[in-house]
Amino acid sequence: MDSDLRRTLRRPSAANDEGMDTFISNPEPAPTPPRPSAPSPVPLLVAAVLVAVVTAVALLVGSSAEYSAIFPPAWLGFVGSVLAVVAIVCNHSAERVAEASAWVASLMLLGASGGVVLDALRAFFAVTGIPAGAFSVVDLPGFAARLMSLVAAFAALRFARALRRSTLDPARSGERRGARRILLLSGLVLCVPYPLLKIVWWMSGDQSEFEVGFPAMELAAFSIAALGLLMLCTSAGARLPRRLVSLGGWCGSFVLLSMGALMLFGLLSQRLGLVAADVDLGDGGRAVMVFAVYSTWFALGAIVAAATVLYEEATTRDVPAGRSAAPARR
């Protein structure tokens, strides 16, 4: 009897086995993180309407200064506003269309803002009264339209980022790592043409009335751009403060896109006869060269912006409430 009792105690019951199998094969599922809420369209809608109104007024009043004749045409603001409205309308029915429209709207609006930095510098001299001659003359209607386009560009950018977060698939993180490598290689290649051209120009000596010096600033600027791309596209950026890297990426992309758009749209508008100004660039070969060089500025700005978006996604993690997200390391 004692031996039968010992055997019974050593042998687990079938019911316990079934319960253990059920526990192992059917673990409690992990809670699904909540999906980010849809972005509010109000800021973008207000900005798009203001851009349309201010741009219409600027076109009706006309330019009050000759310097702005080579700036990107004002109608780009209308294009960006329409695309922004498309993004808002398609927000709930076609999220991919809405996201693409918001990204393109931000680029169009940023292009429409080309020259706003020069406007601001002229306005500074006009307001302070510092003697600057013709440089203190400001195209006020155009300045207002370009400034509003810049504000709307950031509103469209925030809307596009929010839409992307709401549709982001964590399972595709490998694809995003591959995209970051492609952006890094492409961006590093685009950092070469402009400094190289300036070096060749410097080595060739003075050109007509222009004094050619060593392109130290150009080399420094594009070296910083290359370093910034390395921070955005490699694990080195995860060792630095996330806000600092993101701020550098967005500021760099704004400068490159704004300056590139200023020259690209200005030259293209002149060739197509959309603006009356005529900047003499010599023969057609020089115009093509200038267009190609500033194309690299615009393309590099777009790459830096895309790299910043992917960097922010790679360094953000969903964590329980009360805990901070640690930078992702690869």
Explain how this protein is built.
The chain has 330 residues and is mainly α. Helix 5 (95-112) packs across helix 11. Helices cover 68% and strands 0% of the residues.
Q: What fraction strand?
A: under 5%
If you average the pLDDT, what whole number results?
Answer: 78
Count of helices? 12
> What is the molecular shape?
globular
Number of domains: 2
Give a brief outline of the structure:
This protein folds into two domains: 37-167, no CATH class; 173-330, no CATH class. It is 68% helix and 0% strand. The chain has twelve helices and no strands.
What characteristics describe this protein?
single chain; 330 residues; mainly alpha; globular; disordered C terminus
Could you give the topology of this structure?
Elements: H1 2-10, H2 14-25, H3 42-61, H4 75-89, H5 95-112, H6 116-128, H7 140-167, H8 173-190, H9 193-203, H10 216-233, H11 242-272, H12 284-314
Helix pairs in contact: 3-4, 3-7, 4-5, 4-7, 5-7, 5-11, 8-10, 8-12, 10-11, 10-12, 11-12
Transmembrane segments: 42-63, 69-90, 102-123, 143-161, 182-202, 214-232, 244-268, 288-311
Region (Disordered): 1-37
Keywords: Membrane, Transmembrane, Transmembrane helix
